[in-house]
Amino acid sequence: MKKNRYNTPVQQKKRAIAFGALLLCVFLGNAQTQPISIHEQGSFAVGGKVKTSPGSFDPIAHGAFNPADQSTEGQTLHGDHATVLYQIPVNANELPMVFWHGYGQSMRTWQTTPDGREGFQSIFLRRGFPVYLLDQPRRGLSGRSTEPTTINASTDDQLWFGIFRLGMGTEFYPDVQFSKDPEALNQYFRQITPDTGPLDINVNIDAVSALFDKIGEGILVTHSHSGGQGWMTAIKTPNIKAIVSYEPGSNFVFPEGEVPETIPYMGGALSARGVPLRDFKKLTEIPIVIYYGDNIPNEPVENPAQEQWRAAVTMAKLWRDTVNKHGGDVTLVQLPDVGLKGNTHFPMSDLNNQEVAELLSGWLKEKGLDKH
Q: Where would one find the signal peptide in this protein (predicted)?
């Protein structure tokens, strides 16, 4: 019988090594196709209030289906709550991560990317963290408001294209970390959602504080408009043990008597707010990290969409220095400075969101917050 030179022990070993390497490449290249083991998951509402109309409800006289014939006498409205979706993985980290969206957004910010990849929800579940995603009061799944509002149907997609720093007008910035697939942009625009009641940051802070009262200690992750609300929530509840803030843009809090001057920019001005020193010092007791993306100028420019972020970074640096001067632990990272170029206002869903997550993971480990 002729010997098969392709089936010698040496060749078998080489094929086994090659096959093992191939499997490793497939595993690393398709990490998001691997299943995530979930110990517990669910959803609930938290916080909110009940509005009651005077009088007595009569189910016969007041039970008309036609809205024109209905009466509110003696009836209630449950509203102004936050809606929370949570997942707890097997062998979970001690501290959960609570993800709070920005202006005009919902928990979709964290769930997936516009081009269909995994968002921070799955990325950090894979890293062993329980995740809690919320829709703040009067937004998204928490649309039941106790106060009325008018929702305008404004054609403003290109305005947000600029404010969210994908580019100018309809032209992407060079090397932007966003898919050029038209469907990705379509999905991006369709995740914008309106307020269903007047925007009230105290209502939002109360609801998120109630969430931490319910789940206990955790890490708060904010984005954009929820950044400033996050500082104030941490003042209200001691259960926030760290804050991660992506591109905070408003409501920076300073000790009374130390509030900086308003920062003017083309198209507006950014002001800070003062709080009692005893409240402010609560922010010095927890580690905080702030991240900003790319295409934010250092000097005034003629593009209002970029200008507001120049002002935000300037205010954030003043805030960092003030917190740290009082004994705090605030780190501010501009992603281009650490080699991550082209990030938009949504680093958590950009093309390089895995690298953005890895940067955050390093900070969590450094601060002793990754405790499996």
A: 1-31
